[in-house]
Amino acid sequence: MALPDTQTKTRFVVEFPINASPKILFPYLATASGLSQWFCDDVRYADGHHLNFIWDQENHFAEISGQRLNRAVRFVFLNEQRQTVADANFLEFTLDSSQVTDEVYLRVVDYSSGHDAAEQQEMWESLVAKLREQVGG
Questions:
Q1: C-alpha distances in angstroms, 68 versus 52, 72, 112?
Q2: Local structure of 74: helix, strand or coil
Q3: Is 86 helix (H, G, I), strand (E, B) or coil?
Q4: Residue 117: its pLDDT value, please?
Q5: Are the CB atoms for 31 and 110 separated by under 8 Å?
Q6: Cβ pair 130, 38 in contact under 8 A
Q7: What band does 5 get if pLDDT is binned at 50, 70 and 90?
Q8: Which CATH architecture does the domain made up of 11-135 adopt?
Q9: pLDDT score, position 98
């Protein structure tokens, strides 16, 4: 989970096949109510394009910096004053479909610091398992 700090950052990328259409999946990736069902303890709209991700009763504000309906969304995390910062942590979800097999893939890009790659893999596998339970895929 992308939390703001000043340590060395890494770009962690992982893909998961999910048995659900992008139209069904996208609200779980791009809305506060959808994200709160699988991603963290709670997500609330703060104002405009800002969301408050809540983990362990701690607030982490992010801005929706890019979104393509039923395709991709990017959240850029803000500092404690809710301002954008250089080299900010971000989280990006992209949905890709195979024209040949009709499979849908969720690609996660987690740009943050302080994570071991094996730990991140395990964390995302657990989170995506929760997502699959929600969408039936």
A1: 21, 5, 23
A2: strand
A3: coil
A4: 86
A5: no
A6: yes
A7: very low
A8: 2-Layer Sandwich (3.30)
A9: 84
- pLDDT at residue number 1: 53
Altogether, the residues listed in the chain come to a count of: 137
Dihedral sign, Cα of residue 128, residue 42, residue 87, residue 120: negative
Taking the C-alpha atoms of residue 107 and residue 103, their distance in angstroms, rounded to an integer, is: 13
Closest by CA to 22, choosing from 93, 121, 109, is 93
**Bridge pairing between strands 58-68 and 50-55:** antiparallel
Distance CA 8, CA 3 (A): 13
CA nearest neighbour of 50 among 63, 37, 41: 63
| Gap between the Cα atoms of 82 and 53, Å rounded | 12
| Cα–Cα dist 74/91, whole Å | 6
Q: Is the pLDDT of residue 72 over 80?
A: yes
For residue 111, give the amino acid letter. Y
